[in-house]
Structures are given as C-alpha cells and as structure tokens.
Amino acid sequence: MDDGADKPSADQSRADKPHDTAAGRRTGTSSGAPHRRYLLKLSGEAFAGGGGLGVDPDVVHAIAREIAAVVREGYEIALVVGGGNFFRGAELQQRGMDRARSDYMGMLGTVMNCLALQDFLEKEGIETRVQTAITMGQVAEPYIPLRAVRHLEKGRVVIFGAGMGMPYFSTDTTAAQRALEIEASAMLMGKNGVDGVYDSDPKLNPDAVKFDALEYGEVIARDLRVADLTAITLCQDNKLPILVFELLAEGNIARAVKGEKIGTLVNGQGTRA
After folding, report:
1. Class of the 24-267 domain?
2. Segments of the chain with pLDDT less than 70
3. What is the rounded distance in angstroms from the CA atom of residue 199 to the CA atom of residue 233?
4. How far apart are CA 39 and CA 171, in angstroms?
5. What pLDDT, on a 0 to 100 scale, did the predictor assign at position 232?
6. What is the pTM for the complete model shown?
7. Which of 104, 91, 86 lies closest to 46, judged by CA?
8. HSE on the CB side for 173, CA within 13 Å?
9. Domain residue ranges in the chain
C-alpha cells in the first residue's frame, strides 16, 4: 500500500471550470489551471434506499458507479459520508443517552458506510482509501491531510470516516473542514429525495419555491438548513462554494462536478457564474 509520502507533482494539470473564481487557492495550481478536485458529502440515509436503516447494496453500488465514472474522466473525488442510516447522536440524546457517547456511536456508523462504499468502488476498478478521525488501523488509515491529497493526485478516491473524531460536530461540518484542508474547489452535498434548497420543506408544502442560487448570509438569515450553522460559516469565511443537489438522480454527480446547472449553488455572490 502506498504510504502517500511521495512528493506531489507541482505541475499536474487540472483543467476544469471552477465553481467560484473567488475561491483563492482553490481556483488553480501555481500554473493557473483550475482544480478538478471536489469534496462530495453523501447523506447516510441515501445508503439505506427506501428501508430507512442499514445499507442497501444496490443503492451503494449505483452511487459507486456514478463516482467511478467521474474519476475515470480525471476528476479528484474525496467523500464524507453521514451515518444517519445507523445512528443520529442528537436523536439518541433525546431518548436519554449521553450526547457524547451517542455521537461516537454515530461516528462508527459512518465508518460502516465508508467501508461499504469502498468495496463497491473497488469492484468498479477504482482504488479507494478510507481515512478515519478515530484510529482503527485494521480497516482504515488515520486521517492525514497530505496523504489524502497524494492519494487524490494518484487518481484514488478518499473517503473520510468517523466525522471529526469528536462529539458535538456534524458530518456537514466535517465535510466543510475536510474540503478546505484538501483545497477542494467546492463542497457538493448530495441529498436524498431533495433536488436543491427550497424556501420551505417541499415534502410538506407543494408550493415550496426552489432557489437557483443563494448567498451564505441569506442561508443563515432565513435558517434554510442547507447544513448546520458551523459548516455554513466555515464555507462563508473561506469562500468555499456549496452545491446542493439530488444524489440518486442518474448522472447528477457528473453534472455537479462539471458545473452544470443543477440543484442550488451557495456562494458569496448568490448567483451562478
């Protein structure tokens, strides 16, 4: 197994349109070519399909095929997977469990999802590494940002598991932090059954209006629940664009990384380029 210690190539080509040209170092390498690196945040609930709990192999395999297709096109993909199909720390707390302990249970749930996705990606011929914030050497590497970047540069997929490794932090916040640390061009949030951000819950209100683009401050002011406040603030402070889209619609992951007009884009301007 590659330890990721090789010196990264300084002139690696990443010729793709960025989601937000104001994103500073994320707009390109030293040569000026824009990145083709994205952090994909997947909801744990999507892994369960219609079952609500556990992992639906057909669904996870379908997601793996979509990811494999864009990796073959030269995109660098890292992922953070939620664990809501197994445990949700906040919900367990409401039922009387200690919050910190229930959060750790949720972190372990994310690792189960990571391993399932890794298996199906490798069945598609895509080398994949799982890195976890809680050390579990028999199943995953420890989270080491520079090693993760080296894996990505070699065409491997990297899946980050176990959240931040600390209670009280959501996987949305983990996704934002990991995206910033690996210098991703954008955070792509694949949702289960929702194709963007609406002014109210479209599952409850048939007249809900979908937003094409939003500014970070508007998301916070209107409490639109794109992600938790910590995650949104991290993205706002560091000019990291967020694209919210329907995960399970065929071809949507490819559309997202290619900058096609799907879902809802959240950035500093509240508009699409």
Report:
1. alpha beta
2. 1-35, 50-51, 88-90
3. 20
4. 12
5. 98
6. 0.86
7. 86
8. 13
9. 24-267
